[in-house]
Amino acid sequence: MPSKLLLTGATGFIGGTVLHQLLNTSDPGIKSLSITAVVRKPADADRLAKEGLQTVLVNGLDDDEALEQAASKHDIVVNVATGFHATSTKSLIRGLGKRREQTGKDVYYLHLSGTTCVSVPATRESPFELRAFSDRDEDIYEYELLREAYEPYAQRTAEVAAIETGELCQVKTYIVMPPTVYGRGTGFFRTQSHQIPTLIRNALKTGYAEHVETGVARLGHVHVEDLARLYALLVSKVVEGASIVSGRHGYYFADTGYHLWSEVTSEIGKVGHELGVLKSPMPRAISLEDAAHKFADGDVKYAEACFASNSHTRTEKAYDLGWRPVNTESDFVNSIRITVEDVLKEQEQNA
Prior knowledge:
- By secondary structure, the chain is an alpha/beta fold.
- It has two domains: 4-186 and 221-253, Rossmann fold, CATH 3.40.50.720; 195-219 and 257-309 and 326-339.
- 46% of the residues lie in helices and 18% in strands.
- The chain contains 14 helices and 16 strands.
- Strands 3-2-1-4-5-8-12 form a seven-stranded parallel beta sheet, with helices on both faces. A three-stranded mixed beta sheet has the order 9-11-13.
- Strand 4 (76-79), helix 5 (86-103) and strand 5 (108-112) form a beta-alpha-beta unit.
- Helix 1 (13-23) packs across helix 9.
């Protein structure tokens, strides 16, 4: 039975919320685990120590040796720092492989990815048509290999690396693929997500909510606490020794609803105008190149994936395991007002 879990991303939005879920669960299997968090700063380690948590310090995600060594002392790794870093992914899995060699017992790796890995551009031609994926489909891995051969994408590159390194090191891998993650996080550090707060900060800077071209790009969404519940469920199943699908078929989608970015920016515009911080309630269109500059530090590929692509993924295996998200579509819409207010408070505090 696994007894030691290593978690990356404890200071982040998703990772902090996953950690909170693991620490506050009533699940006896999870409560039996010894949990260690990977952090970069001594001050963060001190903060987590006050919560009774063990930590290990590394010099960032490129600290391959430290990550591999840390993972080699654990039975489960929950990597929710980022899904865009292939080398740290490999290091963590190699470490788990060493643990398996030492103990002779199964080891497990849970990886944060995203549905943009299977999305298609909304503003340009692509040889790949929009496909409705179920996480029960058996060819997702092969599809991603085709996509990678045509046009590498860092999140997908890391995901493929997780599966292939897991096979090489005999580590059971589980790929969690959320869409847009929204809501207020429950971690000890960062409590805001990326996509919607980015649009809000840009709106406050320019005076207008802005979306890419027509704004008809369609992505899914999931509340961060519901996503954290899925991670906790997978950890629980692993600890109890349940037979759950891993490796090339170990994909777990996490969609609970869908939105158009024009709908999101319309709500941002409405709320911002009501609060007197935007010039108009009406959103306006900008080019993908402008969006890359404003939303993604000039990275066109990343801006396209996050704000100008379409995906259609059906969550089925998570529900089969017993996942029960509690947030509704009205919660998604209401979260936009809450997030606008949170960003305004953040800016006031930093002024």
